[in-house]
């Protein structure tokens, strides 16, 4: 398979809901359009931030169709694949291909914590279920399943596996991956508050959560990194970092949606079991968000 030209800032897009938790597709499509107009390079829908596992199967197809309609070929659109069984993940991959989605971001099977042999078998099966290019999402802190650099050496013989979203939190992994696999994989950073370090080490893309609230700043930071304007990049990064820390909390979805609500781009509504923030926690997070907005840099 020819590797796709995946690079740059890809939002891990939020999914929008009405107050009764039903899908708000017009708001979702408007948000996608706003981020594309701000200059993002691609889009990931129904990832962790998109509350993939809070949707039933048919709803996921509805969200994907709405995303494809709104994006209209302007940037690549990938779908998260977060299913409980390998068989359902394979079915999902096939249905994404039928819908015309550009690629898959494949997670380990949900709930069951597979061992390395099982993990590799899951990814191989999903990769072979369609002709779509696949990004493997490695996030052991969140999903308790680690795909090590050595495991990616084993997966290198799967032609449709072309990319890695590295979210282990250990930036040494990027160097290890490059040393072991060269340019075999397109490397994306998946941890918002490690993006500068990850790009310096060789990541060519950034799948971000806070871009949902601050798309222009995400794009500006990425452009400064690519231009190696380190002084300007550090200044913007240091302003942004308190917000980016919100991406690595167990309540990242609530935090990111609250930030996007404060910037007028999204409602904070999440589907249970995720509940709206309240009390001291809410005030603390709002304080971080509002301080950043008050000191928002002029781009």
Offer a concise description of the structure.
The protein is α/β, with parallel strands linked by helices and 299 residues long.
Describe the structure.
By secondary structure, the chain is α/β, with parallel strands linked by helices. The protein has one domain (8-294): Aldolase class I (TIM Barrel, Alpha-Beta Barrel), CATH 3.20.20. Helix content is 46%, strand content 12%. The chain contains twelve helices and eight strands. The chain has helices at residues 25-37, 57-71, 86-99, 116-128, 140-143, 149-155, 172-181, 195-201, 215-226, 230-244, 252-262, 279-294; strands at 8-11, 43-45, 77-81, 103-106, 134-138, 161-166, 186-189, 205-208. An eight-stranded parallel sheet has the order 1-8-7-6-5-4-3-2. The radius of gyration is 18 Å and the shape is globular. The protein starts with 7 loop residues before the first strand and ends in a 5-residue tail after the last helix. The model has no long low-confidence stretch (mean pLDDT 97).
């Amino acid at each position: 398979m020819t590797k796709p030209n995946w690079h740059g800032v890809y939002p891990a897009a939020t999914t929008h809901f009405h107050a009764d938790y039903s899908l708000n597709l017009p708001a979702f499509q408007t948000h996608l359009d706003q981020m594309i107009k701000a200059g993002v390079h691609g889009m990931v829908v129904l990832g962790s931030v998109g509350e993939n596992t809070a949707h039933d199967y048919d709803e996921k197809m509805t969200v994907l169709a709405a995303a494809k309609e709104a994006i209209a070929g302007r940037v690549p659109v990938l779908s998260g694949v977060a299913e409980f069984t390998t068989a359902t993940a394979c079915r999902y991959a096939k249905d994404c291909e039928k819908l015309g989605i550009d690629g898959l971001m494949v997670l380990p099977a949900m709930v069951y914590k597979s061992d390395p042999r099982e993990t590799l078998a899951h990814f191989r099966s999903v990769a072979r279920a369609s002709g779509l290019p696949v990004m493997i999402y490695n996030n052991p802190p969140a999903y308790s399943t680690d795909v090590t650099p050595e495991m990616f050496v084993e997966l290198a013989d799967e032609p449709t596996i072309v990319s890695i979203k590295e979210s282990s939190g250990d930036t040494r992994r990027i160097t290890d991956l490059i040393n072991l696999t060269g340019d075999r994989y397109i490397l994306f950073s998946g941890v918002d508050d490690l993006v500068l370090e990850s790009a310096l080490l060789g990541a060519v893309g950034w799948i971000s959560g806070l871009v949902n609230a601050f798309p222009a700043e995400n794009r500006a930071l990425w452009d400064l990194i690519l231009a190696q304007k380190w002084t300007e990049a550090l200044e913007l990064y240091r302003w942004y970092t308190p917000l980016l820390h919100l991406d690595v909390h167990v309540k990242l979805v609530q935090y990111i949606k609250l930030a996007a609500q404060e910037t007028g781009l999204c409602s904070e509504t999440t589907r249970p079991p995720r509940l709206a923030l309240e009390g001291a926690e809410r005030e603390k997070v709002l304080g971080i968000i509002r301080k950043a907005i008050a000191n928002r840099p002029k781009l």
